[in-house]
Design brief:
Layout (H helix, E strand, L loop, with lengths): L7 H7 L1 H59 L2 E2 L15 E2 L2 H18 L4 H16 L3 H12 L5 H18 L2 H13 L7 H14 L3 H14 L7 H13 L13
Parallel strand pairs: 1-2
Length: about 260
Amino acid sequence: MGTTKLTRKEILAEDPVHQAILQLVEFFRVNGTKVAVGAVAAVILAIGIYAGLQYLNSREIQAQERLAKGMEFFHAAVSPDAAENPYAKGSEPVFRSDAAKYQAAAKELSPVATGYGYGKLSVVARYYLGLAQLQLGQKKEAIQSLESVAGNSKNRTLGFLAKRTIATVHLGSGNYQGARELLQSMIRDPQCDLQKEDLSIQLSKVLVAQGKRDEAIKVLRDANTQSPAFGVFKQQLITELDRLQKTPKAGAAPQPANP
């Protein structure tokens, strides 16, 4: 039986790999300009993405540094003989007055608090900024800063700390109902990780300020029953409960002494 002899062209035409190569070459021949432009655009895009990531990384590092510095200033020592430069006498900052250190802290914290959306860094910065503003007597601004933290879910602990601070401000300014609502909501919240004994002590002070001594005693008794035998605020809670129980009700006549 005779065989059919294929030509080289026919053999190559039957090779799928070679066929694909031929098609690719033809594609680049016809669309060479478009491909080149696309390649350049891809390179420019890659460079832009890389530059953007580098910028964001640099910005993040700068924010971290400013936040750390602001927190360091907030907790810094105070000395009347401190130099203008807080680091003049060593690696630990020292300021001439409380006002000076809180102003310096606020200056470092403000850009992080306002320029980084609602990320974790900005939440911490707003919390400390609120504390610094309170120390500077900027109550309205402080409440705004702390409320923005209290309503944030990225850091629950800071959120509850902010609420507790706001409650303390309300108590000091006579807004007893506002303080009471915040403290009661935290005590009842199973996700609140602050010490319930401490919150109960604060709530009892609010109730006493409202003239509700019996309710304050009940709050402390409940907290004493539910709290562990040993705790950071256990002794303080017992002491406060004992003091309230021995304090006569307002308007009650003093008991006569035993003969």
